[in-house]
């Protein structure tokens, strides 16, 4: 039986919101910027109640004045922090002057010197930041979730407790709280410049441990197989994917590259890259294929070990069906260092439609192909 956790009534469905409905991917995808919810709300050093509040912010399930006006509980909606706008999740995080000042100070504390961007743009930046699985991201998540929590607390205190903190007071309270929390949870950090800089900046006293690099290299396909390396690339103004087929001797058979609209997620691009490479292999008549992508998530989804987001379902379905065209096809995760050729192809400038080409290749790509055959890469996990 599902446990009811808070009492927002979903008007369209006429039912109570539950934990599982908040985490429902389709609902979140429809809600827009909240689709990368998991990454933002879950951090190794987060305080549980901060994560829960972050989850509610991302799912837009907080009961703000706008919600109460819609439900005809109150007449007018006003942000109690700035008193200059209606109150809703978008305004509170981060369009409100008060919250912008607080968030901007917290970013500065973390070592990010820039002004807070306009609402959705700021969230886009946050989602991308939270997408990296490194220790500094977990520190960032602890700061973000604590900030969201304390801003919501401040709003509650002003409404119901009748007292308020200035921006400076809240920032100082937040810094103390976050530091105390991190100090109790972070005992060791990898000894890299970024971690040292953050620890020094926020005053975190931790031990630094040397990271042993992982040795990795591009692995040629088994005899009789063709290797497909793929990659997706998402930057601020450009999105694309690419890949290449190589023989057992490491000789390039064919490459492809395409540009896409920037509204796609990295995962969608990674899966499109795999789909296009498989299509190409079928067209060229290869019966045995080894697919390697540097997106662990994409590989897990194809292997049915991870849940497929709604927007990727048709691409993944195509990949599953295409497997029937092969005698044998395998999917493996490749380290980024061994997938540089596909990475370069994914970030090439060009028209929207997918372009295919064969050797001779441009000098930079050729150099990577040659290095893949000779170099053992050192991978340092941050
Ligand atoms: Zn406001």
Automatic annotation (TrEMBL):
Cited InterPro entries: RNase_H-like, RNase_H-like_dom_plant, RNaseH-like_sf, RNaseH_domain, RNaseH_sf, RVT-Znf
Top-level lineage group: Eukaryota
GO terms for MF: nucleic acid binding; RNA-DNA hybrid ribonuclease activity
RNase H type-1 domain boundaries: 229-347
Gene3D superfamilies, sorted: Ribonuclease H-like superfamily/Ribonuclease H
CDD domains for the chain: RNase_H_like (cd06222)
Pfam families: RVT_3, zf-RVT
Domain Reverse transcriptase zinc-binding: 45-103
PANTHER family referenced in this protein's UniProt entry, alphabetically: OS05G0353850 PROTEIN, POLYNUCLEOTIDYL TRANSFERASE, RIBONUCLEASE H-LIKE SUPERFAMILY PROTEIN
Protein name, entry field: Ribonuclease h domain
Native species: Thalictrum thalictroides
């Amino acid at each position: 039986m599902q446990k009811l956790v808070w009492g927002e009534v979903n008007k369209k469905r006429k039912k109570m919101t539950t934990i599982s409905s908040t985490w429902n991917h389709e609902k979140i995808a429809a809600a827009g910027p909240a689709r990368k919810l998991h990454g933002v709300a879950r951090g190794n050093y987060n305080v549980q109640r901060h994560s829960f509040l972050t989850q509610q912010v991302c799912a837009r399930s907080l009961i703000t004045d706008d919600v109460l006006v819609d439900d005809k509980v109150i007449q007018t909606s006003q942000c109690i922090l700035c008193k200059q706008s209606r109150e809703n999740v978008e305004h509170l995080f981060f369009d409100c002057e008060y919250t912008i000042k607080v968030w901007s100070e917290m970013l500065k504390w973390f070592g990010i010197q820039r002004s807070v961007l306009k609402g959705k743009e700021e969230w886009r930046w946050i989602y991308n930041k939270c997408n990296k699985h490194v220790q500094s991201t977990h520190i960032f998540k602890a700061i973000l979730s604590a900030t969201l929590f304390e801003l919501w607390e401040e709003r509650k205190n002003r409404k119901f407790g009748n007292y308020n903190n200035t921006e400076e007071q809240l920032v100082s309270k937040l810094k103390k709280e976050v530091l105390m929390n991190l100090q109790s949870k972070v005992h060791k950090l990898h000894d890299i410049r970024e971690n040292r800089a953050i620890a020094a900046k926020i005053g975190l006293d931790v031990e630094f441990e040397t990271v042993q690099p992982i040795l990795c290299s591009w692995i040629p396909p088994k005899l009789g197989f063709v290797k497909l390396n793929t990659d997706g690339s998402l930057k601020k103004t450009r999105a694309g994917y690419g890949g290449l087929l190589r023989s057992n001797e490491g000789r390039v058979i064919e490459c492809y590259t395409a540009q896409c609209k920037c509204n796609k997620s990295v995962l969608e691009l990674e899966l499109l890259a795999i789909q296009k490479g498989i299509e190409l292999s079928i067209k060229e008549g290869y019966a045995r294929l080894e697919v390697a992508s540097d997106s662990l998530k994409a590989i897990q989804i194809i292997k049915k070990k991870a849940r497929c987001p709604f927007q990727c379902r048709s691409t993944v379905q195509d990949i599953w069906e295409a497997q029937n065209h092969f005698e044998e096809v395998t999917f493996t995760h490749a380290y980024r260092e061994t997938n540089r050729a596909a990475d370069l192809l994914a970030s090439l400038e060009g028209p929207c439609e997918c372009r295919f080409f064969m050797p001779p290749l441009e000098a930079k790509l050729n150099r990577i192909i040659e290095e893949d055959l000779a170099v053992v890469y050192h991978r340092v996990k941050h």
